[in-house]
């Protein structure tokens, strides 16, 4: 699995606004500095970033909206626990939405919009070739977000963006099977070609197959890591 890269220098946060604090906390969740289930105490975060509580509270609210953090009354914020049920639900919803959006794109996408999909896919493939884990995850998010932008369905864009923030976190923790990136590239290309040809049924089917294959791979990775962690725990 690629080692998640830091997006921030540890001394860079002081005096910044809540957007930068949000990015910094998100980055540390992705890197595993704040692992799933860990408490995110406002006072501790204020000390770490040397800022007041308001930007921290706003950042935690933003991350709750993205699905990375859970805030409970009288208990504060924790990093969201990731389990097989959550993973399955995210991908099942994604299959329905992406299938619909890909079909809609096949109906209305202009040549320029199809080229935009091709350009994003090229950036993703370049990131894969360069071994850039974060770049790959971000371009994958952009690829799927582009469906919603072409369709004009802003609600779908919002839902899928939140899901892809979670998927990004999960993938950076558990990685991909050895051949999965080749599969993703082939599946993305199939989706693009179906959209380019205006084949509505093929576009929807290609998007659904892509989601199902991604789910199967993600569950395999998650279950493999969970088994290893349980074995280590028992050994301890």
The CATH class designation of the largest domain is Mainly Alpha
Roughly what fraction of the amino acids lie in strands?
under 5%
**Order of strands across the widest beta sheet?**
1-3-2
- Helix and strand content put the structural class at mainly alpha
Number of helices: 9
- Sheet of most strands: 3 strands, antiparallel
Question: What name does CATH use for the topology of the largest domain?
Answer: Four Helix Bundle (Hemerythrin (Met), subunit A)
The CA-CA distance between the termini, in Å, is 24 Å
Overall pLDDT level: 86
The run of helices and strands is: HEHHEEHHHHHH
Total of domains: 2
Helix content: over 70%
Give the CA-based shape.
globular
- The CATH architecture of the largest domain can be named as Up-down Bundle
Low-confidence stretches: 1-15, 230-234
- Gyration radius from CA atoms, angstroms: 19 Å
Number-wise, the strands total 3
CATH homologous group name of the largest domain? GntR ligand-binding domain-like
Topology (SSEs and partners):
Elements: H1 18-31, E1 39-40, H2 42-49, H3 53-66, E2 69-72, E3 76-79, H4 84-108, H5 111-130, H6 133-151, H7 154-174, H8 180-197, H9 200-235
Antiparallel strand pairs: 1-3, 2-3
Descriptive notes:
The structure is a single chain. Strands 1-3-2 form a 3-stranded antiparallel β-sheet. The chain is mainly alpha-helical and 236 residues long. It is globular, with a radius of gyration of 19 Å. It contains 9 helices and 3 strands. It folds into 2 domains: 18-79, Winged helix-like DNA-binding domain superfamily/Winged helix DNA-binding domain (Arc Repressor Mutant, subunit A, Orthogonal Bundle); 84-229, GntR ligand-binding domain-like (Four Helix Bundle (Hemerythrin (Met), subunit A), Up-down Bundle). It has helices at 18-31, 42-49, 53-66, 84-108, 111-130, 133-151, 154-174, 180-197, 200-235; strands at residues 39-40, 69-72, 76-79.
């Amino acid at each position: 699995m690629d080692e998640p890269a830091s997006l921030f220098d540890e001394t860079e946060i002081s005096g910044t606004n809540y957007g930068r604090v949000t990015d910094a906390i998100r980055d540390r969740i992705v890197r595993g500095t704040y692992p799933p289930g860990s408490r995110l105490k406002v006072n501790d975060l204020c000390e770490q970033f040397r800022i007041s509580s308001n930007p921290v509270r706003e950042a935690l609210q933003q991350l709750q909206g993205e699905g990375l953090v859970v805030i409970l009354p009288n208990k504060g914020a924790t990093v969201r626990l990731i389990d097989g049920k959550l993973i399955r639900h995210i991908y099942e919803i994604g299959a329905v939405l992406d299938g619909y959006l890909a079909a809609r794109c096949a109906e209305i996408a202009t040549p320029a919009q199809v080229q935009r999909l091709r350009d994003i896919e090229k950036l993703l493939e370049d990131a894969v070739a360069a071994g850039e884990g974060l770049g790959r995850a971000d371009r994958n998010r952009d690829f799927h977000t582009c469906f919603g932008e072409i369709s004009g369905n802003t609600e779908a864009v919002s839902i899928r963006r939140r899901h892809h923030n979670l998927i990004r976190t999960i993938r950076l923790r558990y990685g991909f099977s050895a051949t999965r990136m080749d599969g993703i590239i082939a599946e993305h290309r199939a989706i693009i070609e179906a959209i380019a040809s205006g084949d509505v049924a093929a576009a929807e089917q290609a998007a659904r197959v892509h989601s199902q294959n991604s789910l199967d791979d993600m569950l395999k990775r998650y279950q493999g890591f969970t088994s290893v962690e349980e074995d280590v725990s028992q050994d301890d």
